[in-house]
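Student: Hello, beginner here. Can you help me understand the protein record under this note? Any guidance would be welcome.
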Amino acid sequence: MSIKYRDEIKNIEPYVPGKPIEDVKKEFNIEKVIKLASNENPLGCSPKVKEAIIKALDKLSIYPDGNNTELKKALAKKHNVEVDNVLPSSGLDEMIVLIAKTFIEKDDEVIMGDITFPRYLQATEIMGGRPVVVPLKNFSFDLDGILERITLRTKIIWICNPNNPTGTMITERDLIGFLDKVPSNILVVLDEAYKEYVTRQDYPHNSVEFINKYKNLLVMRTFSKAYGLAGLRVAYTIGDKEVLQYINRVRGPFNVNALAQVAAVAALEDEDFLKKTYDTNLQGKNYLYKEFDKLNLQYVPSETNHILVNVGRNGQEVFMEMQKRGVIIRPMAGNYIRVSIGTMEENRFFIENLKDVLNKGQ
């Protein structure tokens, strides 16, 4: 007799991460491989982070601070909130699951976009919730459409801003208008993983200030992208103290490891590195736009460190052909791919090989 699993996970597909560089090197027997699939920082991380990690290496035999005390203090100071308004996590992946475990009961409805980060859907289904999927409009969240789908069973609304994988954003004006209309008993989770890359002034850059008015709002941010700490898994959520207190009951006692904590504190102190990351991304984005225009490829203007592109051929086929040439990208539905913005050298290498792949497909 086999062990029975929960019915809720019957149709859930495991999350598929970007393919590792070493796997592609071995599979195709090639030396040079660049990865533009997982929206990582091509500059790495701040030198201050590396120094902080080295200093902390002698303490690896000791359990990390289960309260994340210094990290919470640093984040509270940065965002001008109380320490109790901050809750760190092991990446936003963990926080998404923690929120689901804390608030979603069987058959609760959870609203999300149809093209967005897939973990919202998985976390909802794991808890037996009912996903309510609202199609994007012009690759952006249809806020009016979301409001129309709210019912008495609605528990959570997931908003990724800017959105992954489309790179589109919701303005501050539209977000406030939306929050004003959402009933106060429905949790709105604002995933701002790519916030540091936004160039537009009408983005809600100070969204953490909204938590004073909207007690049902959670703002999630991460150190994985612009700060370059994806390998350490550290993120944080800002929100109402009472809401975070409930999530904290579900959180594991040592969820953020010791090196991640000291690295995140050090990363916050290096504004120059963050500025360099922003400038590098903007330069690369503008270069890729121009090259896509030359190739007559349709793309979605992005406020992130990745671009959604229609390559005119099956995205999975292009993904396979690009791998053979040493470039890892992310295949999307239909003729779309998502490419992370790398260094200028990586961006040029990507374009050179994309031209080759598309020309041979004609």
About this structure: The radius of gyration is 21 Å. The longest strand covers residues 154-160. The chain is about 40% helix and 15% strand.
